[in-house]
């Protein structure tokens, strides 16, 4: 009986080992077949017509804030990489040049007729002004604001020049026919009287402007406006009406 039991255990162990070997070979064969077989064909992806066309350039020129949307006149030139946010109003004939930022998130900003805000300027407005004057930033007509200026809740009356790298703080006022030299800082609440030249940090009176100098101030703004028209003409107009105009001109033999 003992020898029969040993023989039975040996036979059973041999059968189990053979079964495991066959099972392992079967699993390996199935895995190889799954790897070598071709994947199912990919289903065609059709884009939904309702899909939102997102702008991934990382920057938008016009940024609405709540109920406020920047307004740009039809013949005003605003460079492609300018940022206008909130209560910003760019009037007729004015120009805002490359890299400028106009933040109307707290108060109103106005760029008047035939005025220009040049490269890399930052224009902002506070909630309130310490002088009691309106806290909005007002740039009136025929004003030239040089590059890299910082304007905050200030008022610039018609026909003025603000030199580049200048800073105008809250409540400051530049009266008409005045010039602020480059690199000057106009302290909060300070006023530049009409027809004067100021300079320095802080800005101080230098001298009175001559009549000829005051006549040249609006001419500079007009020259910048004329230059902006050349840039403006390099961009296609809104809509596709210009295509019909070009077709009509070609049909009449008019060179484009």
Automatic annotation (TrEMBL):
Protein location: Mitochondrion membrane
Gene Ontology CC terms: mitochondrial membrane; respiratory chain complex I
Membrane-topology descriptor: Peripheral membrane protein
Domain of life: Eukaryota
Sequence similarity: Belongs to the gamma-class carbonic anhydrase family.
Protein's name according to its UniProt entry: NADH:ubiquinone reductase (H(+)-translocating)
Species: Helianthus annuus (Common sunflower)
Organism placement in taxonomy: Eukaryota, Viridiplantae, Streptophyta, Embryophyta, Tracheophyta
Gene label: GAMMACAL2
């Amino acid at each position: 009986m003992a020898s029969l039991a040993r023989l039975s255990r040996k036979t059973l162990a041999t059968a189990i080992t053979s079964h495991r070997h066959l099972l392992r070979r079967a699993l390996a064969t199935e895995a190889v077949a799954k790897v070598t077989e071709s994947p199912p064909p990919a289903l065609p992806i059709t884009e939904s017509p309702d899909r939102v066309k997102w702008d991934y350039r990382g920057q938008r020129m016009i940024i609405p804030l709540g109920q406020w949307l920047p307004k740009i006149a039809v013949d005003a030139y605003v460079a492609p990489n300018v940022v206008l946010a909130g209560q910003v109003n760019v009037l007729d004939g004015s120009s805002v040049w490359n890299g400028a930022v106009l933040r109307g998130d707290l108060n109103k900003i106005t760029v008047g007729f035939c005025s220009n805000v040049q490269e890399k300027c930052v224009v902002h407005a506070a909630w309130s002004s310490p002088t009691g004057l309106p806290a909005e930033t007002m740039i009136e007509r025929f004003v030239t604001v040089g590059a890299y200026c910082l304007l905050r809740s200030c008022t610039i009356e018609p026909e003025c020049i603000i030199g580049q790298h200048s800073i105008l703080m809250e409540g400051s006022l530049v009266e008409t026919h005045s010039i602020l030299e480059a690199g000057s800082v106009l302290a909060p609440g300070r006023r530049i009287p009409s027809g004067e030249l100021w300079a320095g940090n802080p800005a101080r009176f230098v001298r009175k402007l001559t009549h000829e100098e005051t006549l040249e101030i609006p001419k500079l703004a007009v020259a910048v406006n004329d230059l902006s028209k050349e840039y403006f003409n390099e961009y296609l107009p809104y809509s596709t009406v210009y295509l019909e105009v070009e077709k009509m001109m070609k049909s009449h033999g008019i060179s484009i």
